[in-house]
Design goal:
There is one protein chain. With 84 residues, the chain is an all-alpha fold. The protein folds into 2 domains: 33 residues; 31 residues.
């Protein structure tokens, strides 16, 4: 039958997958590399956008801050309503 602890250990799990499958480690490394490349591409795109159209980039940043401010005010209003 086996001990209950042996059944728990043999269940695999996220950590056990990379130990038994050498391909899993390679896939994880490839995903990390792809994520890194994607972040570099995003950074290059943002810098390119700022350089080619600084006025439009400033408008986008300003509208983003306005959106964040409005969201914070809404959360504050909601919390105040909960307290009353």
């Amino acid at each position: 039958m086996g001990h209950p602890v042996d059944k728990l250990r043999g269940s695999g799990g996220a950590r056990g997958d990379t130990d038994c499958d050498p391909q899993a480690g390679r896939r994880a490394g490839a995903m990390a590399q792809a994520r890194k490349i994607g972040m570099y591409l995003l950074l290059i795109f943002v810098i390119y956008t700022i350089i080619t159209s600084p006025a439009r980039a400033a408008e986008l940043v300003q509208s983003g801050f306005v959106g964040i401010s409005d969201a914070a005010k809404s959360v504050g209003t909601f919390m105040t309503g909960l307290v009353k």
